[in-house]
Amino acid sequence: MSTFHLPKIDKLLLFCERKKEIRITIYLETSTHCEENHQAVIQLRKFISDIEVELKKHRVEDARINRITHYLRALCEDTGFWLFQSRTLAILVSPHEMTTFRMTSRAPSLLTISDRFYLKPMLREITFPHCFYVLALTENEARLIECYPSAPPVVIDLEGMPRNARHVLRKLSVRARKCRFSSGTQKKTRLYHYTKAVEKALRPYLEGSDQPMVLASPEPLNAQYREVNTLDNLLVEGIVINPDVFTECELMKLARPVITRHYQSTMQKLKHLIEKRRDQQRIIECETAAHHAAGKGAISELLISIDCHALAHTGEAGELTPEQFSKDVFFYSLGVIDEIAKKVLATGGRVWLVHKHEFFMEGNIIAVTRHTL
């Protein structure tokens, strides 16, 4: 079994692939307080019984049923696993493997049985990562802090991360070591080598990450690090302070307003883009039309209503036949939204889960196309 804190886009795409095999998706409401997770275990045991009944009803071989239930029962008995949870636990299980995700957003408990996994609740994690990083950087210390919505922050131990600026200076040439710290040019050279070493240590860990990073650093180190930075997740707004005098929890609290403003700014830019593209007739709000456009790689941005539960059957030619969603039954159908989102992500587009009232949505989706169709 593999466990991940946040589903990455490339991994999510792997789970989107349709195969002629049973795919069971379970979402459980969990808590960071381990004593409260016994309710999630009870719910999981109930789901195991429901799975056995449903699979036997559909004449699935006993060997495949036993493999699936074995994975899930073993998870119930793993007391250490339940000690460290987030707000939602996603379980993706087939007769051959099981993967779990600890999600920071809240999703209601749900069981689905299909020929593919039901991934829409996970899309919220990609839309707006609730976790973020703080890079606390001074000449005395460099700390990468991962922050969570309902758990204490953690300092990440990175290979190659310099302890401080002097540690980097000792690795330079004899001439560089003799540089006087008080000299302006020499000091800038020293900071350059230090920030390059920090960025080099961060790159393997953060490259391609969707989680934003806030820089907490005094000047001139703040500006110097931004000059050498190559990571896309570093936010333009930072915190110009001396982080040495703050704890990890205090730095997390200082960074949260920066993250909130970043999200609000992103949503505002998205609204302006939709208004502009609507005038250019590059907006699709019909799910069937969006499905065809996504198959051609024509969608750059896809907005999905958080509360929609659109389902459909998919034929061999990819056509969609919608059906009504019911929370009281197990469905053996494909989520329309999952299918469209998968195609958009696979062709380099962005997917956003939003509230309808924020974008005046009449239906479940708004798709922005790359060109006029």
The gross shape turns out to be: globular
Largest sheet: 5 strands, mixed
* Helix-strand sequence: EHEHHHEEEHEEEHHHEHHEHEEEEHEHE
Distance between the termini: 44 Å
Total number of β-strand segments? 16
What is the strand content?
Answer: 15-25%
Largest sheet: spatial strand order: 1-4-3-2-5
Q: What's the overall average pLDDT, rounded? A: 83
The DSSP helix count reads 13
What are the low-pLDDT stretches, counting only 5+ consecutive residues below 50? 312-334
Rg over C-alpha atoms, rounded to the nearest angstrom: 24 Å
Structural class: alpha+beta
User: What is the share of helical residues?
Assistant: 40-55%
Report on this model:
This protein has helices spanning 9-16, 38-57, 62-77, 79-82, 120-127, 165-169, 174-177, 184-206, 221-228, 248-279, 287-295, 336-346, 356-359, and strands at residues 2-4, 23-29, 88-93, 98-103, 110-114, 132-137, 142-147, 154-156, 213-216, 283-284, 299-305, 311-314, 320-323, 334-335, 350-354, 365-369. The chain has 373 residues and is of the alpha+beta class. A hairpin with a 6-residue loop joins β7 (142-147) and β8 (154-156). The two termini are 44 Å apart.
Which secondary structure elements does this structure contain, and how are they paired or packed?
Layout: E1 2-4, H1 9-16, E2 23-29, H2 38-57, H3 62-77, H4 79-82, E3 88-93, E4 98-103, E5 110-114, H5 120-127, E6 132-137, E7 142-147, E8 154-156, H6 165-169, H7 174-177, H8 184-206, E9 213-216, H9 221-228, H10 248-279, E10 283-284, H11 287-295, E11 299-305, E12 311-314, E13 320-323, E14 334-335, H12 336-346, E15 350-354, H13 356-359, E16 365-369
Parallel strand pairs: 1-4, 6-9, 11-15
Antiparallel strand pairs: 2-3, 2-5, 3-4, 6-7, 7-8, 10-16, 11-16, 12-13, 12-14
Helix pairs in contact: 1-12, 2-3, 8-9, 11-12
